[in-house]
Amino acid sequence: MSAVFRLIASCIILALIVSCSYSGTKQSDSGRTLPKTGVIHEKILCEGYPEKSYALYIPAGPAPLPSPKTGRGKISQHLFPVIIAFDPHGNGVLPLTLYKNLAEKYGFILVGSNDSRNGLQAEEVRGIVTAMVHEVRVGYPIDTNRMYLLGFSGGARVAAMAAMYQVPVKGVIACGAGLGGAEQPMLYKFDYFGIAGTSDFNMNEMLQLDEPLSRAAIRHFITTFPGIHAWPPADVMEDGFLWITLNAMKDGVMEKDNAFLSAVFTTLGNRIKTLKKSGNLISAADAYHEEISFAEGLIPADHFREELSALEKQSDYQMQVAYRFKILKKEEEEKQELMQALQAKDLGWWKVKIKSYDSRFTINDSRHGSTNPEDTLKNRRLMAFLSLFCYMNANATITRQNESAAIKIIAIYEMADAANPEPNYMRAVLLARRSENEAAFGQLKIAIAKGFTDKDRLTRQTEFQEMSSSPSWFDLLKKIK
Predict the structure, then answer these.
(1) Could you tell me which residues come within 8 angstroms of residue 161 by beta carbon, excluding any fewer than 6 positions away?
(2) How many CB atoms lie within 10 A of CB 172?
(3) Residue 55: CB partners within 8 Å, gap ≥ 6?
């Protein structure tokens, strides 16, 4: 598929000079006693950058042995590979909670930034990345040949940009968003593993990365899973951990483990059989591509290529691919329609339109005139896109004090994403500006009931200062878990 890198964020072009040398397993070179292994530490301050912090998980098991092939075979210290994670909301604990079992299984130190979040200026992001990389290099017994960045959504863009322009790392695992700001030549190359949900509004963007990454001679693989715009579940993320581990074996950084390889390819083979039996031939082809990507450089892959070629010649497969291409083209057209309609169409039009995109119907519901799962997935992606588009535009209109436009967009936002607490929070801001405090309290209670938990944001919101002396305010804060 043809594609170009999209300019999503300003380029972060930096120089980062840090040193790395290690001795001992109980203390870092800086003399710091290492935190307890096998548990998640929610907040550790960065040494030299005390205004920044991170979550940490160090495996309880031993670090992988250095491979003699790297020339480091005589090093007595066991060094850990490390993954630095960036969450779009600065929730460093979340990816560690999701993937600590994988970190234990594959022997990775996991570090999650508590500061990186959407909406920061490039200078702020630069400082966060600098602090995180300095921290892991100086403070922990890491294998600097196996340093990786991980991110979801805006955090994926941070990870990719840092790898391209800021710090040389071995690889990136990017979830739910592609590369941003890649108009200038990369300063560094790295392995890239991309993951997107089939109901993620950024899925098409992720799939389109294959061609430019190939042109740039970047070792990569892009995979999808049945899911939304969210951190992938651990069983999906495991493919990313596996891929970078197998690449380490290919590069001679780890010893080749034949028993481990046999188990990996047995599991992949069984996955392909299940997908083919269910008739999901596109996913089966994707699994073959993954099997080939895993195998190349480790075991012969010709047999996998032959099976993939046979699958691609099947008429059912070709029909599924043609229909998906048609759906993706239609999806891009409908995105343009939705963006143009936000200002031009009234709420009556939007009620009808959103009802037509109702993502809750099943593929066997004949009332919707479709039995193809691609239609359902398209509708889910469009609804997710509309939610994000409304969020961005509602924030912009609130900032510009354009209340009438904000009221309309918030209403559309709530129709598109009824379970999201954000429309209610935004409505509370508008009500508080008019000193309609009781109504504002009502909207905040709804937001909290829907899952709003950002107490810091609530207490910092300028519009709520007048309300903060009320007993109702303290009752409200108690409701936030």
Answers:
(1) 9, 11, 12, 125, 179, 180, 181
(2) 27
(3) 40, 41, 42, 43, 44, 92, 93, 96, 111, 112, 114
- Domains by residue range for the chain, with CATH: 40-256 (3.40.50.1820), 335-479 (1.25.40)
Beta carbons of 114 and 131 less than 8 angstroms apart: no
Task: Compute CA distances 335 → 242, 320, 349, whole Å.
Answer: 35, 22, 16
Longest pairwise C-alpha distance within the chain: 72
Strands 109-113 and 49-57: antiparallel
pLDDT at 69: 42
CA atoms within 13 A on the CB side of 93: 6
pLDDT < 50 stretches in the chain:
1-27, 30, 67-76, 359-369
Burial class (CB in 10 A: 0-12, 13-18, 19+), 185: exposed
Strand partners, 422: none
pLDDT in tens, 207-231: 989 988 998 899 999 999 999 999 9
The answer to whether 442 and 472 are in contact (CB under 8 A) is no
How far, in Å, CA of 294 to CA of 148, rounded?
Answer: 18
What is the model's pLDDT at position 16? Answer: 27
- What's the pTM? 0.80
Give dist(CA 2, CA 98) in Å, integer: 34
Rounded CA-CA distance 201/203 in Å is: 6
Which pLDDT score is estimated for 366?
42
Residue 383 tokens read as 């609804």
CB 410 within 8 A of CB 417: no
Contacts from 347-354 at CB under 8 Å and sequence distance 24+?
A: 347/408, 347/411, 347/412, 350/411, 350/412, 350/415, 351/415, 354/383, 354/386, 354/412, 354/415, 354/416
With tokens 């900032």, the residue in question is 399
Helices (H), 150-256: 154-165, 203-207, 210-215, 234-250
Residue with tokens 């160090």: 58
CB 461, CB 430: distance < 8 Å: no
What was the pLDDT predicted at 183? 62
Q: DSSP class of residue 369?
A: T
**111 touches 84 (CB < 8 A):** yes
CB 112 within 8 A of CB 54: yes
Alpha-carbon distance of 324 to 285, in angstroms, equals 14
- As a whole number of angstroms, the distance between CA 387 and CA 153 comes to 15
